[in-house]
Amino acid sequence: MLIFWLILLTVLGAVAALAWWGMGAVAQGGRLTAYRRWLLLFDVVSPLLLLAGERLFPWPDWLARWVLILLSGIWMAQLIFGVLAVLLRGLRRILQRSAAVPLDPERRRLLQGAAACPLLAGGAGVYGSTAGRTHTVVREFPVPLPGIGPEINGFRVAQISDIHLGLFFSLDDLTTLLEKTAALGVDALLITGDLFDDDEMNTAAAERVDSFVDRFPHGIWFCYGNHEYFRDIDRTKQALAKSRIRVLANDRARVVNGVRPLYFAGVDYPVPRAEFDRLRVRYTEKAMQGVPQGAVTIFLAHHPDFIDDAAAYGAALVLTGHTHGGQIGVFGIPLVPPVFKYMRGLYRVKDTIGYVHCGNGSWFPYRLGCPPEIAVFRIEKTA
Q: What pLDDT score was predicted for residue 99?
């Protein structure tokens, strides 16, 4: 927990410094001093408020939820404002140094319309912490395959992922998501980890998901993510064992017979970080054992690095999550550092289609340009 707070305070300090410096682009003199004082006050008090809430007195969940959503929106507004201000000051410098473009009074007034920066940043802060993180979109993708029979031609699966039950995603939210997914009329629902993320809710969540099994002709399938292991994993496994949810942990199952039978395969999450790469290869090998040559395999994994491993075994479709798509993006491109080889969306590895889901929940309540999603995949016969 100490490391978490050190990282959080370092990030918040960097964001505050960027916004502090950026204020020089939109204000001068006494107004600039006043703005910076208010910024300093907020950026000192808000982390202390979080620490006090955790250490000194228990907050009701509803209050903690909205305080964190509010603070997240303001922090992100500061970050966006700082970036806009940097761009604006850079533009000013370019114009000032350009002999061909003198900085006349009209152009100066135009640039001093930088008051739009805090308005844009504030709007982005509000949107990303409200509708941006709650409005779920449906995306549908074809999976073209040669030589398949009519048994699986047109077979559709839906993927949800990274729900992160807890403070920002309730059981009612889970029900709403499942209802929306079931209404799509897909053949099966595939959940790629990080669903069970709250020990007080996990058992009830398994029961809630189980109540939807009959809404999907070929059932609901699940693989573990890393957050299941952050909680009481034994309790979660017991709840799943009592349900009709099919857990794929280094295992596979034939779903539909046919000319090219359809298999679902899935892997456990490699928990020891030091052994991640070795276990990843081993888990993939175990999951694909017994899958006949020529079968169509849909492979479930939480971590996107499994895309390459499953592609080596000829999986037709590999569904992953974990990254949340970066949670912030423009035109489908994540605006966060590329920590992972595969960050968001569709990838092609040889004849395999890999997909990294944007996630449905989050542990940081903010999304901008990266909405929660239901991804639907339709198997289609090609000539």
A: 54
